[in-house]
Amino acid sequence: MADVEIMIEQFRLNGMDKLIELAKHNKLKRLAERLEVGYVGDK
Asked: What's the domain range around 4?
C-alpha cells in the first residue's frame, strides 16, 4: 500500500491531481450505485 501511495503522490506532483480526483469520484459514485446508497460527493 505504501508503494501505491508513493506513486499517487508522484502523479499528483506531476500535475495529474484533477485527473486522479475525477477518477476517484467516478469510482466512488459507481460503488455507491452498486450498493444502492447515496454518494455524498454528488452535487
From this structure: 1-43
Are the C-beta atoms of 12 and 1 separated by less than 8 Å? no
User: Which DSSP letter does residue 42 get?
Assistant: -
Which pLDDT tens digit goes with each residue over 5-40?
A: 999 999 999 999 999 999 999 999 999 999 999 888
SS3 label, residue 31: helix
Closest CA to 24 of 43, 3, 37, 8: 8
Tell me the whole-structure pTM to 2 decimals: 0.74
Range list of H helices, 1-43:
2-11, 17-35
Which three three-digit cell numbers place residue 34? 452498486
Count of structural domains within the chain: 1
